[in-house]
Description:
heterodimer, A: 3% strand, B: globular
Amino acid sequence: xxxxxxxxxxxxxxxxxxxWLLSTPALLIVFLAALGPLLIVVVYSFLTPGNYGDVKxxxxxxxxxxxxxxxxxxxxxxxxxxxxxSIFWRSVSLSLATTLLTLILGFPTAYFIATRPxxxxxxxxxxxxxxxxxxxxxxxxxxxxVLRNDGIVNSVLQLLGITDHPVQLMYTNFAVLxxxxxxxxxxxxxxxxxxxxxxxxxxxxAGYDLYATRFQVLRRIIIPLVTxxxxxxxxxxxxxxxxxxxxxxxxGGGTNLMIGNLIELQFGQGRNWPLGAALSITLxxxxxxxxxxxxxxxxxxxxxxx
Amino acid sequence: MANRFDVRxxxxxxSVAMLCFFLLYLxxxxxxxxxxxxxxxxxxxxxxxxxxxxxxxxxxxxxESSIRSFQIAAVAAVLAxxxxxxxxxxxxxxxxxxxxxxxxxxxxxxxxxxEIVTAVALLIVFSRIKIWTGYSGLGYLVAAHTAFCIPFAYLPIRAxxxxxxxxxxTAAADLYATKWKxxxxxxxxxxxxxxxxxxxxxxxxxxxDVVITEFVKSGGQDTLPTYMLGQLRRTVTPEVNxxxxxxxxxxIGIVTAFFFISRKRT
Lengths: 306, 266
């Protein structure tokens, strides 16, 4: 005879087993068509490039060396690969600038939405969501039309008499930055809104009762309360900016590459798959560091409240 | 509007917010307006005309790639939603068990890796498989799309499940309903809005994808976004505006439906 406890334990084991069975299809698909291939990228980053793309199965650390260094053709000495480093630097600095600008624009916007009366909030929120769900390529293309030499921005500049000939905006770092801010702004506003919605405005009132200025209230009460939203929004903007491919390709042209385009080049014209693999892993490592920073930050703030 | 004594007021915030909304919609509005331009140029306005919509409609490549986009999105969204629903049932409303965190990490993994990295990883693996098996059909694109749609389908379904307590299911079991009957007549109807939301998100996400498709597709397998990306290299005519406008209307339709479905819940 099984005791009640044994029956309960068996039921629990069965439950866990059926839970594993239920989740297997999803886990399998993700493993086969997303996670597994990533592991193979790691393997490829230690191989030798083939003559016409793909690889030769020959161990080599050259791809990793060339992420950072350049081998001199004549005397075989190593020096820093300034071309790649400058692309990495451009990617990181453009992504940081994008994050900062979306924060500057997004913070007041989220605050504006969060302080509307309940029934009107949904509509404003909806207006933010529409661009978010509009195809990224279409939004980038829309930005291209605005920034062209004969686009709206230049027309307005000439109309106002600020300049008499079109300013070259397309194919510059500025165009890439403007495009990324435009494309990723909703990703900043949405998490900011989520944490602003929960602000207890009695705290703000208390601040004013104690003779705080509007700026002091903002700095000492509102910003500390929405820090989780600021961190989440920054991560959500920073990570896709760093891996951006479409926006720099369409708006930056051939000269303003970011890491994403550099990786693509290795698989296309460059025909150096192992180097492309090593660059991909490097990009992923930077992203993981940003995520770790985020996780550490959120667990710490959770600890402070609980 | 906010008066001077409103505690919520912050100087200048309303202006920045208005500027933000203006900047968000200015490029999209420009794009749509020039889709109706009766001129070969996307910048010089000549007059209202629907001719670019006609041209796009009669462009076999546009129609073909649109159909392909929809086929892939439909299959991938359905597969992703079914598997994500199962996974959500398996990972909610339970006390922590071994492997639960691992499952979360697995399912959300496609969200955490930059798209370009996933794209080259799939290029490497699928090009091998193509050589080994000789198969080069749409299966690769469907598999890739399903994988990155799973987290998007999973999130709303899981959120919905977590807001449902087990009391109704327990009641059904007390009344001798089998596990399947309970699921079919109690859990599923309650979960349906979440499933629908997940399905729509997955569909839109698949329809929008450029990067992964661009790397995974074989020759002649352009979807609408990759076709458009190819067109952007040339001199752009308002035809691209017309295609974009049609695409835009569709996305907005789906998002609006999603908005109303999720609004009814809360």
